[in-house]
Amino acid sequence: MSILHTVNKSPFDRNSLEACVRLAAKGGSVLLIEDGVYGAMKGTSKSDMVTNAMKDLTFYVLGPDLKARGVDEGKLIDGVKVVDYSGFVNLTVENDKAQAWL
Amino acid sequence: MKFAIQVNEGPYNHEASVSALNFTKAALEAGHEIFRVFFYHDGVNNGTRFTSPPQDDINIANSWSALADKHGLDLVVCVAAAQRRGIVDQGEQERQGKDGNNIAPGFRISGLGQLIEAGIQSERLVVFGD
Amino acid sequence: MSEIKKFMYINRKAPYGTIYAWESLEVVLIGAAFEQDVSVAFVDDGVYQLCKGQDTTGLGIKNFSATYRALGDYDVNKLYVEKESLDARGLTLDDLMPLKYEDENDDYAEKDSIRVVSSKELAEIFDQQEVLFNF
User: Fold this and answer.
1) What is the pLDDT, as a whole number, of residue A1?
2) To which H or E segment does residue A97 belong?
3) How far apart are CA B112 and CA B71, in angstroms?
4) Domain containing B77: what range?
5) Considering its fold, how many domains does chain C have in total?
6) Suppose B127 and one of A100, B19, B22, B123 were both cysteines; which one would form an S-S bond, judging by CB atoms 3.0 to 4.6 Å apart?
7) Yes or no, beta carbons of B129 and A100 under 8 Å apart
8) Which residues of chain B have pLDDT under 50?
9) How far is C110 from chain A (nearest CA, A)?
10) What is the CATH number of the domain that holds C22?
């Protein structure tokens, strides 16, 4: 059993990403979408939280949301994978359910 | 695979409905079935045909209607949420004694049971919201 | 519909400031008629939904807190509250409404619907579900 967690809030604004990391079981996937993409950037006060969580969870970020916000892929935490909407769909298929941390 | 989509936010204020729209398109392109798109909370505001955004902006309600027309999508607006927010179809207009209706083509107003049923019948539920 | 799925409704938002808590509760009530294997989780500000002593008379809006007491009658009796969320907010079980149900498999003994669980336990409970509803 595995869950695709989606996080759509900036970690600097809300605790959605923190809650997701706290409550996501090992082996799950986390997809950062909308303002959630800011959580994928390295060198921030939240980067260590994500890097630590990557021991148990796989992190993805939605490319179109990154591009819309002018976030260069080179600024992403190493190991965070960029997917497009079709990749998003695939992630929902590969995991057996989805949890949106609204 | 059979998907259900839940949209909790209205168009424009939040990206949620655009994300849901793009996800739904991508799922259809990949050959998946969309069992139902359920609009709840302020998400019911996606279902009015009375929006007229500027020409250079996306018309989200029209985009849903066009997608429903092309793929036979079942776009369901929650009746309880719709009544609170003034989304009205012909039936609701008559029941509530309103002087008009504003439901967009391809949308229908129905009960919350439609969301539960979508959860039962679909293999995946994907929620977009605030 | 004979298929029974494990449904979980996840609440992370406080009542009144936004409508999510109330409209989410409406889904749980309607969903009860579908006889699925239902549980509800309260995490982060969602735990505030269950606090005692809610009184909206000064606002002039509906106080829906009493509705949580009805959940037991609808066979919605697995209400998981995350301990870490309570702790972070300086709350204990005593601050929450005493929500009960009658266990028909145990001579209708009155039991507590609220189960305080750790983050780790709740993560496992999430994993065991088939459909997760978010509001």
Assistant:
1) 73
2) strand A97-100
3) 23
4) 2-128
5) 1
6) A100
7) yes
8) none
9) 30
10) 3.40.1260.10
DSSP-assigned states of every residue in C20-32: HHHHHHHHHHHHH
Active site residue: B60, B78, B88, B118, which one?
Answer: B78
Q: Which of A7, A29, A62, A92 to mutate to test the interface with B (most CBs of B within 10 A)?
A: A92
Q: How far is CA C45 from CA C1, C21, C89, C91, in A?
A: 34, 10, 8, 11
Give the bridge partners for A98, in sequence order: A4
Q: How close, in Å, is residue A92 to chain B by CA atoms?
A: 7
Whole-angstrom distance, CA of residue B71 vs CA of residue B82: 24
pLDDT digits (tens, 9 = 90+) for B86-109: 999 999 999 999 999 999 999 999
Here the CATH number for the domain that contains residue A76 is 3.40.1260.10
What mean pLDDT is predicted for residues A7-22?
98
Q: How far, in Å, CA of C129 to CA of A86, rounded? A: 25
Domain housing A55: 3-100
Surface-to-core class of residue A21, CB atoms within 10 Å of its CB (0-12 exposed, 13-18 middle, 19+ buried): buried
For residues B87 and C97, give the distance between their C-alpha atoms in angstroms, rounded to a whole number: 35
Angle at alpha carbon of residue B15, lines to C40 and A68, rounded to 5°: 130
- Identity of the amino acid at B43: G
Q: Does residue C1 sit within a domain?
A: no
Give the whole-angstrom CA distance, residue B127 versus residue B31: 20
Q: What is the pLDDT of residues A19-77, one digit of tens each?
A: 999 999 999 999 999 999 999 999 999 999 999 999 999 999 999 999 999 999 999 99
Residue C127 has its nearest CB partner, among A1, A15, A98, at: A1
User: C-chain residues within 8 Å CB-CB of A99?
Assistant: 10, 126, 132, 134
- The answer to whether B1 and B121 are in contact (CB under 8 A) is no
Mind telling me how many Å the CA of A9 is from chain C's nearest CA?
13
Q: Does residue B78 have an active-site annotation?
A: yes
